[in-house]
């Protein structure tokens, strides 16, 4: 009987059975495919990161005109009521707690500067409106971490924009924070996510620096207030001292006089950490101590 090779079980044709030029071409095609797959995967990952970066109002080392945001830390449920004062001018008046100071504790910078309530907060505005802004409102703190917290605010009292600066008071302590996220879940409530930039802070009096030769020709400008954040582990800039104040007064390289109430210093702004409409945060260096 003749053997019919049509029915012979033949080996499968895979790369292991290819030899010579055909085998080499197959290997090259396989390696090319692997490289293409890896390239496309890396490109997709880069696009995803770019999309996430655009969606976040403030990503790591990406700033709203100036500040690198701290990474999110472990959060803890809080459910506590906190006093909130929104806006630089009202919070500077609020954190000073002027109403609680005795006459002996009121420094010359506070008592002899100018009428804070009517002139500092909102010029030409009704004093009652200013006082309400200084008293602030009560929001609920839903959870907290070392770097920030999540608050629930009535929709009508929520900040108008991201980057707004505010002060939080829980118990007897004030903290300075910046609005990073906002989301309205209900018609009458808004969730506000804030980054804490300082827990150790002092209000100080500042004046534009005028050289003695120019003082006779230049009119006397009104002083203004700022928030001094010392180098401290509880502050965002834990290794460097910084100031927060009106954005139009805080220009890199500019010099101002800083009055703590007990001493006066000439300082120079060295680096802007964040600049928003209405306020700026900058590092500074002391040039020299001024005579009282």
In words, what does this structure look like?
The chain has about 290 residues and is an alpha+beta fold. The chain folds into 3 domains: about 15-55; about 75-200, Thrombin, subunit H (Beta Barrel); about 200-290. It is about 25% helix and about 35% strand. It has a 6-stranded antiparallel barrel with strand order 1-2-3-6-5-4. A 6-stranded antiparallel barrel has the order 7-8-9-12-11-10. The longest helix is centred in the N-terminal third of the chain and has 36 residues, at about 20-55.
Relevant terms:
single chain, 292 residues, alpha+beta, Thrombin, subunit H, 3 domains, 6-stranded antiparallel beta barrel, 35% strand, disordered N terminus
